[in-house]
TrEMBL record:
Keyword DNA damage found: yes
Annotated protein name in UniProt: AAA family ATPase
Organism field: Antiquaquibacter soli
Cited InterPro entries: ATPase_AAA_core (IPR003959), P-loop_NTPase (IPR027417), RecF-like (IPR014555)
Taxon lineage: Bacteria, Bacillati, Actinomycetota, Actinomycetes, Micrococcales
Residue ranges of domain ATPase AAA-type core in the record: 23-346
Length: 383
């Protein structure tokens, strides 16, 4: 289980170190940095797929995603007595992401590229440092594998450092490039862990949404991130999982979901009390389809190690908040779950969750009511 998420210099997250539990709710007003917390987790997952550089590029590149404020924010700046002003940087420009977990922990640092006239990709950030260590606390004796620049080394069977004969490229993560079970087996274990993480963010429910379309009728234990194959995913839950009919009845009393096979293509409809026929996917409201998406995602018969939901309350009627909260709490018995929401009602309904309330001071995202001395222990590997 992840115990700590650490982010430095990513958008409004100048320095954020937060604890995570089996079920964590991240909440706050609009613009306080909730989406940045969600994106930072996605970037960590992208590193295992070799896609972190591309993901940063889609956000506008490193220069657009770096903390735009001063390197240090004084007490006078926070109180408004002193104007916010830039100061000379004392350290290298870096975007850092990391997490601490019970077994294997990880951090990655992105920096500015070395100027070169030999490439047109001069805006691509470079990976400067990566580190994998055992347990939640980084100490010299717990480091298992580390990468500085192009050099990679790991602990061999005797505990001594061994260096990889090949130099890793500045845009490649060691998680995606090294797959030798004899050399640094922890990289393979960590890579599989991150690749099991699952993210759902503003899945479409409009008239042309993939969720409303017919899809091939094949077993779908994991709902795709775009919501496609929803009918097949719901039928898979019905046959391989538990709780589907209860979740439908809890939200829409007396209703029953029907999945039909049209020459190998599945569609779905909702039969409701008092109606002479079931309502097909195209006839259902956005909120109803949204709830069915969450049913398929949260009751997955193949639960992930980490499930991250970004504003799942979007387009749902307030009456569906309690059924959604019950689904999330149930999913947290099988997976670690992080919910990012601006709904105080959903946050309150998840009464057993640990809660992180974000607010913004002088442009910087902070945890409400918490000082640095109350943070989980965290330190970054040195460049």
């Amino acid at each position: 289980m992840l115990r700590t998420l650490a982010v430095e210099n990513y958008r409004s997250l100048r320095r954020l170190v937060v604890p995570l539990s089996g079920l964590t709710v991240v909440t706050g007003a609009n613009g306080t940095g909730k989406s940045s917390v969600y994106r930072s987790l996605r970037l960590l997952a992208e590193a295992s797929l070799g896609g972190a550089i591309g993901a940063l590029a889609r956000e506008g590149g490193l220069s657009s995603t770096l903390w735009a404020g001063p390197e240090t924010v004084s007490r006078g700046m926070r109180s408004g007595e002193v104007p916010v002003q830039g100061t000379r940087r004392t350290g290298p420009v870096a975007l850092r992401l990391g997490f601490a977990a019970d077994e294997l922990s990880y951090s990655i640092e992105f920096g500015l590229p070395v100027p070169s006239e030999r490439t047109m990709f001069a805006l691509d950030p470079e990976i400067k440092v990566e580190s994998v260590w055992s347990g939640p606390v980084l100490r010299p004796g717990t480091v298992l594998t580390e990468r500085r620049g192009a050099d990679v080394r790991w602990r061999d069977g005797s505990g001594e450092w061994a260096h990889h004969p090949h130099r890793v490229r500045a845009y490649d993560s060691i998680l995606s490039e090294f797959a030798d079970p004899d050399a640094a087996p922890e990289l393979m274990a960590l890579r599989e862990q991150l690749r099991s993480w699952r993210f759902y963010d503003h899945v479409r429910t409009d008239a042309e949404a993939p969720a409303r379309r017919l899809a091939p009728g094949t077993r779908t234990p994991v709902l795709p991130a775009d919501g496609s194959s929803l009918a097949a995913a719901l039928q898979t839950v019905r046959e391989l999982g538990t709780g589907l009919d209860t979740a439908i009845d809890r939200a829409f009393p007396g209703s029953r979901l029907e999945v039909d096979d049209r020459d190998g293509w599945f569609g779905f409809a909702l039969r409701q009390p008092g109606m002479l026929r079931p309502l097909a996917a195209a006839e259902l409201s956005d909120g109803t389809v949204r709830y069915l998406l969450w049913v398929a995602a949260l009751l997955s018969p193949r639960p992930p190690g980490l499930l991250v939901l970004n504003e799942p309350e979007t387009s749902l009627h307030p009456d569906l908040t309690e059924p959604l909260a019950e689904l999330i709490a149930d999913a947290a018995t099988r997976s670690q779950v992080v919910v990012v929401t601006h709904s105080s009602r959903l946050a309150a309904a998840l009464a057993d969750a640990s809660r992180i309330d974000l607010e913004k001071h002088t442009g910087e995202t902070v945890v409400a009511g918490r000082g640095m001395l109350e943070e989980p222990p965290w330190s970054w590997p040195k460049r």
